[in-house]
Amino acid sequence: MENSMDETTFQSLPDAVAKRWPGQVQVNLDVRRSTCLLTCDSRLLPDICEWVCSTSGFRFATLVVEEEPAQWLLRYVFYGRSGIVQLHILLRTAKENVAIPSISGIVHAADWHERETEDLFGIIFTGHPRLGDFVLHEEWPEDVKPMRSAFDAHLPYRRRELDPEWRPHSIVQSPGAFMMPIGPVYSDVAESAHFLLETVGEDVIRTIPRFFYKYRGVEKISEGLPVEQVILLSERFSGTSAFAHSLAFCQAVEDIAGVDTPLRAKALRIVLAELERLRHHIAAIAGICGSTALSVATSQAGILEEEILRLTGSFTGHRYLFGLNRPGGLTRDFNNSTCLQVADDAARLIERLFKLNDMLRFTSSFLDRIEEVGIVSREQAIAYGLVGPIARASGLARDLRKALPYCGYETVAFDVPVETGGDGYARLRVLFHEAEQSARIIRKMAATLPDGEIAGPFEYAAGGALGWVEAPRGAAFHWVRITESGTVGRYRLTSPSFINWHGFHLAAEDFAFQDFPIIMATFGLSNAESDR
Amino acid sequence: MTKWVLKGLKTGIVTTAYPDRDEAAPGVSPGLPGSGLAFDEESSSDAERCPTQAFIRDGQRLWVDYRRCVHCFRCAPGRQGSTQWQGGYEWAGRLSDARNKGPELGEVFQTSLHIRVVDAGACGACLSEIEQLNKPYYNIHRLGFFITPTPRDADVLLVAGPVTDHMRMTLKKVYEAMPTPKKVVAVGACALSGGVFGPSFISGAGVSDIIPVDVAVPGCPPPPLALIHGLLVMVDRKPSASWLSTTPVSGGKEDV
Questions:
Q1: Model confidence over A238-257: pLDDT tens digits?
Q2: Which residues of B, range 63-102, sit inside 8 Å of A by Cβ?
Q3: Among A103, A476, B111, B156, which one is least packed by beta carbons within 10 Å?
Q4: What is the CATH number of domain B32-86?
Q5: Number of domains in chain A
Q6: Are B202 and A317 an interchain contact pair (Cβ–Cβ within 8 Å)?
Q7: pTM score, two decimals?
Q8: Quick one: CA torsion of A405, A410, A414, A415, rounded to 10 degrees?
Q9: What residue numbers bound the domain in which A272 lies?
Q10: Contact indicator for A107, A49 with CB cutoff of 8 Å
Q11: A424-451: pLDDT as tens digits
Q12: From CA B137, how far away is CA A305, in angstroms rounded?
C-alpha cells in the first residue's frame, strides 16, 4: 500500500484519467505546486477515490468545504505519491437538497471529516452510517449550521438546556456488563473529553468517545479577520504545538502570495520546530511514566521537561514558542552562537533522557504495563490514515518532513524511527528516538545557519493554498483562502490529534479497564488540537 | 527497584526557593509589557497594534489591562514596538465581585488547600503549566497545596480557557458540587477576557460570566510561578499584584 502500485506520473495522469473516465473528469495540472486537480460529478466520486487510494496509493489528507455564492465547493485532498505533491478532487454542487455519496466506506480516514461537514455545513453524505451530533452536542438544534456564511459568528447563540430525555444511541446488553462514564472533568489535570466505556468489570468491550467539549469554532471565527489576527488563532488553538501550526498557516499564506522565505528564516524555523518537537516528546514521555505511577521516573522526566521549557523560554522569550512566526519569515533573529549553545543544551538533555530510557528498559513493572497493551496494527493504521509517532510505531513510515518536504527539510539528513509492534512500548520507543533525531537536526542547523534576512518584503495576494507541517503529534494540513480584501475567507484546520483520536478506540478496546489511562498516555493526543 | 530510589536520592532537590526567595533562573517567565507609559506617538502605535486591545488610555498615560495581554510581543522592542517588557511573575490579582458573598477561606486553609482543575476550553499551554506545579521544579505539595480529582474535596477551582459553550454547564455543575467555603482562581488570558477566542457564538468572555472569580492570574499562559503566586494570594500568604488598582475598569468588573 505504501509504494505505488501503478506507474502514473504527474505528466501521464491526465491520460490515465481520460482513459478510465473519457470526457467525464476534467484534469488540470498546477505545475508550480506539482498538484493535480480533478474536477468531477458527484456520481463518479466513489469510483475516483477508489482508484486514487487503492490503485494509485495516495493517502487522504483532508476534506475542505468552501461556500461559493451559488454552490458548495468540496475539495478532497490526497498526498503521498512521489512526483505528485497533492491530488485534489473538486466537486461543485448546488446549495440546497444536496446529497453527496459518502467515501468513508472506501477511505475510512474520511469518516470524521464527513461527520464534521454534515454537522457544521449541513451537507448530507449518503451511505454514511452515522451522521448527526458530532461537533455540536445534542442540545444544539439540528438546523443550526454554524459554518455557513449566513451564520453570524459573533452573536452569542441563544442559551439552551439539556434535553432530559437524552439517551445514548445504544446501551450495552450482556450479562454483567455496564457503562462507565469518564469525563468531561476527570483525573487530576486532564483535558475535557468524555468517554463511555462498555465494560464487564475488567475488559473494555467498546470505547465511545465524545469530543468537542473544547470546540472554539476557530475555523469559523477566523473568517473575515486579517491574517495578523488569524496567526494568533493558529498559534493558540493548540498551545503545545503552537510553532508547528503557525508555520503551516504561514506557509499556506506564503504559497498564496508566491513568496519564498529567506534561507536563514527557513533554517531557524527548522531549529524552532524541532525544539518544539523535543519538548513535546519529553512531555509525552513524562505523561507515560506518570500514567504507570512510576514516581521517580515521572519526576526525572518532569525535571527534563521544565528544563527544556526554561531553555525555550530564555532562547525565544516564550516557553511555548508563541509570537515567532509571521508570513514571510520570523518576527525576530537569533544569534548564531546562541543557537549553537541551545544545540549543546539540547544534546545534554538527550543524554540524560537516554539514561532514563536505559533505566526504564530494565524495569519490568513498567514494561508490564505498556508492552503488548493498546495495540494498533499496521493495517488498521493505514485504514484510519493515522499519522505521527502513533503511525510510525505501527510500522508506517509516514512523515511529512520526508513525504512532502517543506521549509528546507529536503536538505537535512535525518532518520525517521519506525517500530512494528504497534503497542504502547513501540510508541514510547518512537518518542525517545524522534527526540534524539530532533536534537541532531537542531545541532546540524545551528552549525550551518546561512546569513541574511529573517523576513523579506511581504504582500498579501488573494487565492487559496494548502500549508502543511509534521507537527509533534503528526501531519497537520491547513487550507487557507485569502479574499480580495486581504482577509481570511476560509481556514480549514486538519490536526494530527483529530486524525488520531479517530483511531484511538482501536487501541483502547479489548484491553483491561486499568490500562485505559496508560493507553491514552501512550497516544499523547491533545483535545485542544483536535476540537479546535 | 533500589536503582530508582538511588536515582532519586542522587538527583537531590531542584525545587524553586519561591516564595521564600525570588526565582532568578532564566526562562521561568515570558514577562509582561510595562504599564503606565507616557502616551506619545510610539506608545500609541503600540496600543493600536495590540491585537487584543489590552492598552487603555487614561489621560496622558497608557495602562495595560493584563487580563487581555496574550504575549504576542508585537509591542516589544526588537519586534515592531517600543514598550519595555518587565520580567517577574507575581501577577495574580484579587478581584472583588459582588457575587462573592460566600464565607472566606479561614486560616486553616492557608497551609492545606485542595484544588480542582477545570479545563474550560484551554489550548494546552495553560494546562501544561498547571501540570508543572506537581513536578519537582515547583512541587506545590511543599506549600500544602494539593490537586484533587473531585470537586467534592476541593476548596479552590482553578479554571483555564474562555469557557466554551459545551463546558458552560459542566463548569457550573462542578462549582455547585464544591463544599463551602469555595473560591475560584481563573488562569490565563482566555479565562479572564476570552482571549483571542471569545466572546463568540461558541465561547464566552471568560470564567466570570459563569461563576464568580476571586483571583485572576494573567498570562498566555501564566508561568508556574505566577500560578503559585495566584494560590498564595488566594490564601492571603502573598499580597495581590497592584496592576488592578492602576487599570481603569473595563468590562464591568469591579477592581479593588
A1: 999 999 999 999 999 999 99
A2: 70-74, 76, 78-80
A3: B111
A4: 3.30.70
A5: 3
A6: no
A7: 0.91
A8: 50
A9: 262-452+499-531
A10: yes
A11: 999 999 999 999 999 999 999 999 999 9
A12: 10
